[in-house]
Write a structure and sequence with these properties.
This protein is an alpha+beta fold and 272 residues long. Helix content is 12%, strand content 29%. It has a domain at 123-271: Beta Barrel (Sortase, Chain: A). The N and C termini lie far apart (160 Å).
Length: 272
């Protein structure tokens, strides 16, 4: 069958340039591409969307912690000034050999415990090489008239330690007494007045230790003018007092007029 001849179309004919165009192609946008109208920008709450972005507010300084106030700058500067003056003063003192320290007390003698101190222990034997004394020690107390007792005459070659005071080597003055003589002749402390400063006295104790004392002075006192505080009351360090009678013989119950006292200080200790 022969092809039919196309019928003519009445009405205005479309131009050839239009007829040659293909139909429009729909091209998919790349992934992520926004198609359609953009959403409106979000408006900040409390302000008109067209007023723009407000300027940032200035930051306020942090509030101080309750109970702690900031240190004034002037006070810090004053402290640094005094520190600088102190350092300069110390430097000048070192360079010129001057003492520019503030408020340092002057030394007042030997520091505490610059000497030996012993635990209490009863004395047993007395040794005084300079006057050739080697004697046992017995305990004595107070006599009926309130004075310090002495060894009985039958034991006049023994020394008597006053048991109401410190033991030799403890803090305070230990007191050892003895007779100077009897009706029959010299006794243990007959030569006590001949002792001199620097000589040594040794006391052996029950704990098998030896307290070594050095003589400070040998002094005579009228019995009515005895310096009680100096003899019995000095507790600044361990010390020893050796005491006997001396001076003029008065006779009767009075005996001798004076007391002879050796003042000595503990200087070292050793084993028996």
């Amino acid at each position: 069958m022969s092809a039919e001849t196309p019928r003519s179309v009445t009405g205005p004919r479309m131009p050839e340039s239009v007829l040659r165009k293909k139909s429009a192609e729909i091209v998919a946008p790349p992934p992520g591409t926004i198609t359609g109208p953009l959403p409106p920008p979000p408006s900040a709450p409390g302000r008109h969307p067209f007023r723009g972005t407000p300027a940032p507010r200035p930051r306020q300084p942090p509030r101080p912690i309750r109970g702690k106030r900031p240190i004034p700058i002037g006070l810090i500067a004053l402290a640094l000034l005094f520190l600088g003056l102190f350092i300069v003063a110390m430097g000048l003192g070192a360079a010129t050999n001057l003492d520019l320290s503030f408020g340092r007390p002057e030394p007042t003698g030997a520091p505490p415990r610059a000497f030996p101190v012993m635990e209490p222990s009863r004395p047993e034997r007395l040794s005084i090489p300079s006057i050739n004394v080697q004697a046992p020690i017995l305990d004595v107390g107070l006599a009926s008239d309130g004075s310090v007792g002495v060894p009985p005459l039958g034991r006049h070659n023994e020394a008597g330690w006053f048991s109401g005071g410190p033991t030799p080597g403890q803090f305070g003055p230990a007191l050892i007494v003895g007779h100077a003589d009897t009706r029959t002749g010299p006794s243990i402390f007959h030569e006590l007045h001949r002792m001199k400063a620097g000589q040594k006295i040794e006391v052996r104790r029950a704990d098998r230790s030896v307290a070594v004392f050095e003589v400070n002075s040998v002094e005579h006192f009228d019995k009515s003018r005895l310096p009680i505080q100096r003899v019995y009351g000095d507790y600044s360090r361990p010390s020893l007092r050796l005491m006997t009678c001396g001076g003029t013989w008065l006779g009767g119950d009075a005996g001798y007029s004076d007391n002879i006292i050796v003042f000595a200080s503990l200087v070292t200790t050793k084993g028996a």
